Amino acid sequence: MLSTVPAMLPSDSLLHFPAFDGGFTPWDCSELLPAIQSPKPTISTPSSGPVQSTKTVISSSGSDDDPNRSVQPDRMNRTHANAKSCPNDVSNRAVSVVDERKRRRMISNRESARRSRMRKQKHLENLRNQVNRHRVENRELKNRLSYVLYHFQRVRTDNDRLQSEHVLLRQKLSEIRQILVYRQLQHMSSAWPCNTVIPEQTPSLIA
């Protein structure tokens, strides 16, 4: 409520207010009375007479017309909202940090797995190349072994043949020696005429 009072009030009127029913004074019931503003001094100007300034006083009677009271709940609501949103922001940041760590760990694990697969694939490729190279070398060794075995069989056959020929030649040589000895003896016996021994005829040993 807006109320105005005269600027100058007699001092007796302020001191002699009648008591209310029940023994309350006006000062005890100050909440029920409009606020009274103290008078301001008069200002005199050259052009006019003394001017008494009065000011409109806004009394607070507990209604919702007070803008200060309407602003304070809004501030309190915003404060409570901010206070409630702060833990949510903190939790959201913590969750985002955890998610970021998980994502980085996942990327790192993928890179490690990819490098491991590449190393295993390279090692497997090297093993395959070694196997192929050893197969080629083994094939070459088999061919060389077959060649050596073939020549060994030829040499062995030739050796057996030569040994057989050697035996035959020795036998022939022995027979030739016997014939030569017999002829020498026969020649010597014919050279002595007094010898009455008739040599026995021996068959020829040479076919």
From TrEMBL:
Region of interest (Disordered), ranges: 38-121
Family matches, as Pfam families: bZIP_1
GO BP term (any one): positive regulation of DNA-templated transcription
GO molecular function terms attached to this record: DNA-binding transcription factor activity; protein heterodimerization activity; transcription cis-regulatory region binding
Entry's localization field: Nucleus
Keywords tagged on the record: DNA-binding, Nucleus, Transcription, Transcription regulation
Keyword Transcription in annotation: yes
Residues that span the membrane, as ranges: none
SUPFAM superfamilies membership: Leucine zipper domain (SSF57959)
Chain ranges of the BZIP domain: 99-162
Compositional bias per record (Polar residues), positions renumbered to this chain: 39-62
Broad class of where this protein is predominantly found: nucleus
InterPro entries on file: bZIP, bZIP_plant_GBF1, bZIP_sf
Record's GO cellular component terms: nucleus
Keyword Zinc-finger: no
Name of the protein this chain belongs to: BZIP domain-containing protein
